[in-house]
Each structure stands twice: as C-alpha cells, then as structure tokens.
C-alpha cells in the first residue's frame, strides 16, 4: 500500500501543472498614473544609459535587457550611500514589464525588482514600481530600510511621470 510514488512520465489526461510560485518576501511598491501611451514609458525604462537623466533611485545603469543578462546598476535609495549592484534580467516584455533579480549579504537577502506598465486607455497607464525582498534576513532588512526604499520608489515614479510627459510633448490628455 505505502510504496514509492512514481515520478516523471506522462501526465494523466486533463492534469494541469500548478501555477508558478510567486517570489516570497516583503513587497514594497509605489504606483502612479502616467497620462501617456505605454511605449513612451517603456522607451525611458528600456534606455538604461538614459536613466542618469531622470532616475534618482537608479542614477546609473548599463547592460543589455535580455533574459539572463547581468546589468550594472547604481542603487541609491534616499538617505543611503549609492552602491553598485548586478541584477540579472528575469523577464521583460516591451511596453509592459521589466523584472530583475539580485542577492545581497552572500545570498541572505534576495531581491526581485519589478517595473510594470498597465495600459488603462490609449494614452493612460498605471506604473507599478517595487521590490520583493526575501531570503533568510530579507524581511528584517525590508522592515528596517523599507521607508527609505518606498521614498525612492515614489521619487523614481514621479521623475518617470515627468520625463514621460515631457517626451510625449504636451499631447497628454
């Protein structure tokens, strides 16, 4: 009766795989409405070298947005010294999302960074900008540094909105 369960092999007809597991940890997020089309916002987010012109949270960035690629980014939450991080591109969809991942403290902190664009109308979007901080000590770090990170996310979103509207050239509704 109690034997080893079979593994592998074909799935029974009608069987479905469980949905992918979301990253665990403390989520710190800021959302903002931007009255421009998504391609205007994506143009700014996907131009890593251009972040230095508008992005206060990540004032320097370089690399290629391609799944599995490692970027070089300066992370500068308000009230903390800037530091270089090397996130890996997890996923990207033009005009929709960019997801990055990196570790800190020898892997004791795992961070998933996301910037997502949700189109509401032809010339209107909501941008969700945040981090999920997990790992063995990640939640503790998130609780102690979360306020500064949230402020940085808000400042980044406000700068992204201003830059998007300027790029859109006053044609905003």
Task: List the defining traits of the structure above.
single chain, 173 residues, alpha+beta, Alpha-D-Glucose-1,6-Bisphosphate, Chain A, domain 4, five-stranded antiparallel sheet, 33% strand, disordered N terminus
General description of the model:
The chain has two helices and eight strands. The radius of gyration is 19 Å and the shape is globular. The protein has one domain: Alpha-D-Glucose-1,6-Bisphosphate, Chain A, domain 4. Residues 1-9 have low confidence and may be disordered. It has 173 residues and is α+β, with helices and mostly antiparallel strands. The strands form two sheets. The chain has a five-stranded antiparallel β-sheet with strand order 1-8-7-6-5. A three-stranded antiparallel β-sheet has the order 2-3-4, with no helix packed on it.
Give a topology summary.
Layout: E1 26-34, H1 38-45, E2 60-62, E3 72-75, E4 83-85, E5 88-93, E6 97-104, E7 109-121, E8 124-134, H2 138-168
Antiparallel strand pairs: 1-8, 2-3, 3-4, 5-6, 6-7, 7-8
Helix pairs in contact: 1-2
Overall CATH architecture: 2-Layer Sandwich
CATH top level class name: Alpha Beta
Strand content: 25-35%
- Main sheet specs: 5 strands, antiparallel
Overall pLDDT confidence: 89
What is the end-to-end distance? 68 Å
**How many beta strands in the DSSP annotation?**
8
- Quaternary status: single chain
- The CATH homologous superfamily is named START domain
- Strand arrangement within the widest β-sheet reads 1-8-7-6-5
Structural class: alpha+beta
At the third CATH level, what is the topology name?
Answer: Alpha-D-Glucose-1,6-Bisphosphate, Chain A, domain 4
The domain count comes to 1
| Helical content (DSSP H or I, runs of 4+) | 10-25%
Specify the number of helices.
2
N-to-C SSE string, H for helix and E for strand: EHEEEEEEEH
Rg result: 19 Å
Question: Which consecutive residue ranges, at least 5 long each, have pLDDT under 50?
Answer: 1-9
